[in-house]
Design goal:
globular; 62% helix
């Protein structure tokens, strides 16, 4: 899928989690719901770090473009080193390492560790990066027409304000994990979820997605998971734009309303 659909699906997924936790008797404070949805929307772009033309490659100028080239090369080398004889030969690393469940778990765990070991500055860094990505994904038309500096300033200002809101008692810095020193440990969850939702979205497209790597399936180490061929669509097609994106918006609205107790 394309960047806007990925971000919408990420936001909808976290709002759905909010509805589920509310139904289970452990509701999210509204700042956790909002911040988590924005982080998840941004994180849903991150697996495309292996693609130099993806939305994320433009988010931070030369830095993100360079990072995408490095991740592409690393992913390609991991693919070559681990492919089975039945896996196809390929010339790049797109939809390999960063499009797996293992990557999602590791990136989420890494974010949680960063959040609890670097105190406020680590939290601000995570918020800034993912809020910029959320703007690039959810407000992509405005982001394309605006300068990068304005998008970065919006991300930095929003990160500072939202971190201050979360720090207030009862607003969610210790949501889910309330032990000493575990504030913001939950930040890794929307990041992991965003990556997984991205992979599931890509699995619906023609090429599929090797989500379950390194588990071997049908003799392939990089088996492209997906529905039957007739149910798949091309990225950017009318199915994505006219069907999936409205569905994501509807599900997100219903999930958010349920999480806040309006339904």
């Amino acid at each position: 899928m394309m960047g806007p659909a990925h971000s919408l699906s990420g936001a909808a997924a976290w709002l759905g989690v909010g509805a589920a936790t509310a139904a289970a008797g452990h509701p999210m404070p509204w700042p956790v719901l909002v911040v988590g949805a924005l982080i998840c929307a941004g994180a849903a772009l991150a697996p495309d770090l292996d693609h130099k033309s993806a939305t994320i490659s433009r988010a931070f100028g030369p830095l993100s473009r360079g990072l995408c080239e490095v991740v592409d090369k690393i992913s390609y080398n991991v693919y070559k080193a681990t492919r089975s004889p039945r896996d196809a030969r390929r010339s790049g690393g797109h939809r390999t390492l960063t499009h797996t469940w293992l990557w999602a778990v590791l990136i989420g765990a890494g974010a949680s560790i960063l959040a609890i070991t670097t105190d406020r500055w680590g939290v601000l860094a995570l918020l800034f990066v993912h809020l910029v990505l959320a703007v690039e994904g959810l407000l992509w038309r405005a982001a394309r027409m605006s300068s990068d500096i304005l998008v970065w300033l919006l991300g930095a200002t929003s990160a500072w304000i939202l971190a201050g809101v979360l720090d207030q008692p009862g607003n969610g810095s210790d949501w889910l994990f309330s032990g000493p020193g575990q504030e913001y440990l939950w930040l890794g969850l929307p990041i992991m979820l965003g990556a997984l939702v991205h992979d599931i979205g890509d699995a619906l497209t023609v090429s599929g997605c090797p989500i379950l790597w390194p588990l071997p399936i049908a003799g392939k180490r990089w088996y492209p998971i997906g529905p039957p061929k007739g149910m798949r669509f091309r990225a950017g097609s009318w199915v994505e734009l006219k069907v999936l994106m409205p569905v994501f918006m509807l599900l997100g609205g219903v999930g958010g309303a349920s999480a806040l107790g309006f339904l």
